Amino acid sequence: MKENGKTKSARDTFTGSFGYVMATAASAVGLGNIWRFPYLAAKYGGGIFLIIYLVLVVTFGHAMLMSETALGRMTRKSAVGAFQSFGSNLPLRFGGWINAIVPMLIAPYYCFIGGWIVKYLYEYLAGNTASLAENNYFTSFITTFSSTEICFIVFTALTFLIVLMGVGNGVEKASKILMPLLVLLAIVIAVYSMTRPGAMEGVRYFFIPNFRKLSLMTLVAAMGQMFFSLSIAMGILYTYGSYLKKDGDIVKTSRLVETFDSGVSILAGLMIIPAIFAFLGGSEENIRSGPSLMFITIPKILESMGLGQIPGIIFFFMVLFAALTSSISLMESGVSTFMDQAGWSRSRSCVVMGIIMLLLGTACALGYDAWSSVQPLGMSILDFFDFLTNSIMMPLAALFTCVLIIKYAGIRSVVEEIRISSPFKGEKTYIVTIKYLAPIILIIILISSVAATFGWLKI
């Protein structure tokens, strides 16, 4: 059978399950794990947040991860083609394209933030540790277009070159090297952080649940972090599933991806939360500071240790690996869509996706400088893209996946696809989750995210 002048057998594939696990885990593990997870865990109760998050990962997250992977492998298509394989009506067309467009919009601003990491790593390599610890350094840097644009282009170029090399030579090989190294570096930094005087208070806060801190927003925040962390509703799992061979155990590989992703999140929590308690006393202002935990607080901590350069180099190398592996998967999803839908070659698809990333990423950079007065919905350009994709499009994309399975593909067909290579013992739980639990959770995420953004729900 031919598609766009190519046979199905000509489609790229991962060399094996390990390559798939590493590439998918690499997609899931990114900046959200390094700074977003610790920030949310600290803000929403520490141990109670962690428990809720892990429960959601092994239930809702597991079901959605398997579903998108199975649909990708079943159809041998990225998100748009996977949806259209079951019909051409409007809901199917919309569902496919919203899954495909999400990574095309996220990749540009993700690479822009990746450029910040390039800048910090460069400064640490150059030995400029004292300047990084200054109060106004981060703000001064992100509001200077020329500096942010150069670093953004460097990060984007790294992503482009790896994706251009293809699935086996680029995406898979990079993931096999970068992911184990990321874990190793995370373990080293976490151990160092936990052994500082006063750090055990942060460890206890992170692991021991305080049920008095349980609230609706704890549940919503844990849902959102799990949802975004596993790369659900970004078209990525459809794409990577389409590269997975029929003998790839979907149940086992999904569990491995979840374990890897959750493990790195916990390591990130152990890197950052104990350090905040050890060096800054665990104040509410510092522990809730979000991005500044990495770009402002960490340099201050390293400088206060008197060993700023070497730990700083190690830390930001690790963060660079995490950011790069995720940006690769975001770009690969867009490239796969162009290859499938337009019949373009990988190189042409990479160039088009690269142009999109450069244009939208540059808009994000200008949003902190010359275009700072441009405030869609009262947000910066970067924050607007983040709100549009994370709060609106991704929950909708996942809801359409549920509709695709329930109404068009059929739950039994997806179950049988999983059974091709997996002893599927959790079939009944999976069916209940997809039919009832997942849609409810996704609707809660969608409504609460919008309500919180517009101030209708207090966080």
From TrEMBL:
Keywords: Membrane, Symport, Transmembrane, Transmembrane helix, Transport. InterPro entries: Na/ntran_symport, SNS_sf, YocR/YhdH-like. The chain crosses the membrane at residues 12-35, 47-67, 97-118, 138-165, 177-194, 214-238, 259-280, 310-330, 351-371, 391-415, 436-457. It is found in: Membrane. GO terms for molecular function: symporter activity. Pfam families: SNF. NCBIfam families: Na_transp. This is Transporter. It comes from Thermoclostridium caenicola.
